[in-house]
Amino acid sequence: MGKKAAGSGGFSSRVSNFWYYHKWKVFTAVFAAVILAVAFLQWSTRPRADVSLILDMNASASPLLVEDMEEIISAYCKDNNDDQRCVVQIIDVSFPDGSNQLGASQTTKLQGEMQRGKTRIYICDEDRFQKLDEMGVPGQHTFFPDLDGKALNLKDTSIMHQIRQRGHEVPDLYLVLMESPENESLMEVQKQAEALVKTLIDN
User: Fold this and answer.
1) How far apart are alpha carbons 71 and 84 in whole angstroms?
2) What's the distance, CA 167 to chain centroid?
3) Nearest-angstrom CA–CA distance, 56 and 195
4) Does residue 7 carry a pLDDT above 60?
5) Cβ(154)–Cβ(173) under 8 Å?
6) 155 or 25: whose pLDDT is higher?
7) Helix axes 63-74 and 158-165, enclosed angle (nearest 10)
8) Rounded to whole angstroms, what are the CA distances from 26 to 21, 30, 88, 115?
């Protein structure tokens, strides 16, 4: 009996000692695990984009403008990933000239997207089109009527009418599609982008 009591007391003592010295580590580990679990749940349940576009203007783009543009354009998008919904993601890299800190951040984001190559469609104003054109970004396509076959001016399209009906003051915007990639892994993305562009041209 005495040995059992001593053994039991020894175990209890070790637990108490561990808790005394390590309780904050335990709290921190549990807290981190909860945060990771919530983040994973949000990531795994959020809708996956069927197509992504880059918005590049010489102006600031409000989050509401980006959200409205995503909603408007999604009406013309196909369900490319078979999840029973059409989701458009707009990657905003806009900034007004003279915004040094924001400009550096947005330029870095643009360069990262260009290197990845998975975002094939750009919506830009005329100022940023000229800069993109200097970098050789816009492809020349027979279905584009504006800027030497490199763009579609959206001013008379349903998209622009809807954007302005929602109260957004934006300059004339152009739809631009990159040239067909040499990388075969991007060909399916290019086909999906071309299909969306052609649908937008017809509307």
Assistant:
1) 16
2) 23
3) 21
4) no
5) yes
6) 155
7) 140
8) 10, 6, 41, 42
